[in-house]
Every structure is written in C-alpha cells, then in structure tokens.
Design brief:
Layout lengths: L6 E2 H14 L5 H13 L3 H6 L4 E2 L1 H15 L4 H5 L1 E4 L2 E4 L11 H14 L4 E6 L5 H9 L3 E7 L2 H13 L6 E5 L14 E6 L14 H4 L15 H13 E10 L5 H11 L2 E8 L5 E8 L2
Parallel strand pairs: 5-6, 5-8, 6-7, 8-9
Antiparallel strand pairs: 1-2, 3-4, 9-11, 10-11
Amino acid sequence: MYKDKSYNVSDILKLAVSFLEKHNVQNPRLDSELLLGKILNLSRVEIYTDFFRPLVLQEVEDYRKLIVLCAKGKPVAYILGKKPFRHLNLKVNSDVLIPRPETELLVEKTLDVAKKMKGPLKIMDLCTGSGAIALSVAQEIPDVFVLALDISEKALRVAWENTEIYGLQGKVEFICCDLFEGLDNSFIGDIDVIVSNPPYIPSGEINELQREIRDFEPILALDGGLDGLREYRRIVVESPNYLKKGGYLILEAGAGQADSIMKLLNDSGVFDEIDVSKDYAGIERVVVAKIKG
C-alpha cells in the first residue's frame, strides 16, 4: 500500500481513503480519519488542523496495519476498541454487538417512561451485551437500579469493565442467564421496566448481512431464529411474571418487525397502551407496552 517515502497527514489520508474505496468499505473517509486519529492521538478536527504534519516511519507502518484490517472488513469500532453511545464511550470487542445509533432511541423511550413513574425504580435490561442500554439508564436516571442480563459470560465481562470505567458499580448488577431462565423468585413482580434489544435477524438472512457484521460480530447477538421473532415471543410470554402491575416493556424492533411484535403483545391479553416510535430513518424501531392493572 505504501512505498518507502515520506508522508504527511494529507498524503496518507488520501492513500487510505482510496485503498478502502477499492475494498468496498462503506465509510472510507470516516474510517480512515478515525484510524489515523488513533495512531496520532488526534481528534478528527485536529487531523485537519494539522493536515501537513509529517509522519515518522513507525506511524506510517502502524497506520497501514489498521487500514489493512479495515479493508478486510473488521469494524472500526473493534479496531479502536471503543464505540460512542449517548454520553458513554464504550469498550467493545468481538464478544459484543457494536451499539447502534438507533438503540439510543430505545434509551430515550426508557427515560420517557421513567419520568412517569415514582422512584426508586428497578429496570431490567435483557441481552445487555456491552451494557450500552443498562449503563446509559443507570447514568441518566438518578434513582434507579438496573439488572442487566446476558447469556454470554464474555459479553458480561466487557459490560462490567464499562461499568467500572464509569463508576456505576453500585447501580448495576449483571446476571448470566438465557433471558429469564434461571432467575430466582425474588425478581417476580418486582421490576418496573423491562427493556431489550434482543437478537432479531432471521437465521436465513445472516449470510446476507454486510461482511463487517456477518464475519465479525457475535452471531449469538444477531440470530433471532427462523423469522427473527424467537426472543420476542419468549419475552412477551415471560415478562409479565416479573413486571409490577402498571410496569412497562420496551423493545427494539428490526426493520418491518414492529407490527408482528405489537400483535404478540395484543394477543397476550396482558398489555395495553401499546405504542411504536420511528427512528431517524423512518423505521418503526421501538415498541412500548404497559402491563394492565
């Protein structure tokens, strides 16, 4: 990719963008800037204010290695080891799904619901992954305790590290289990809000995903069964056992799934005030329902 010559920031960035474009990377300029920022310890703005700074040979070589990883499809968030999410900059690796901007809407709706309720609140986050939802809720709601569940012990290790980084240990408890399976009876009827971004990609569509997702992100956090609704069925059936009367269930939906999820909620006979919110792309993304009573 790079020959033996001297480079400045402008030179190396042009080469990197061109290289990533040829390898069909979705965001070649953004990715090139973020990776160069990691090598030079600069923000994206600082890169452009220091555009003609010369690079030493080691910086060029270190940058080349990162660009090659990106060209092979490895997500930049995994290369950097970090992903911004609301007010957090979360540690991420291949054991956890990379938090998406649309999931921030799930947190917003959880905050809206929390404002209607009297504290202290107990909120349960199913399929917590990196802890993005759980830690955002713990950080942004003053009087709350969050139970964060995930089937993956490796994911929970990442989530716990994020908890320590932000000093939220006293507000969050992590439990390794498959949704509600294995929870003791002390949680029955004790939760004010259950929130979840479960796996929702239909099994047959996994191989059609872009390579950055298909080849690098954990399949366990993606595969939602034959129709993508496997975990939603379990959550709708089992969550009423754990929610207080008048408690809320808040679910992120995949594209085109909101109607099916609302039908599951309606057919259960125990939820009302069912509502759906669209994300910034106009996709029906978050479904909110309230337990009757």
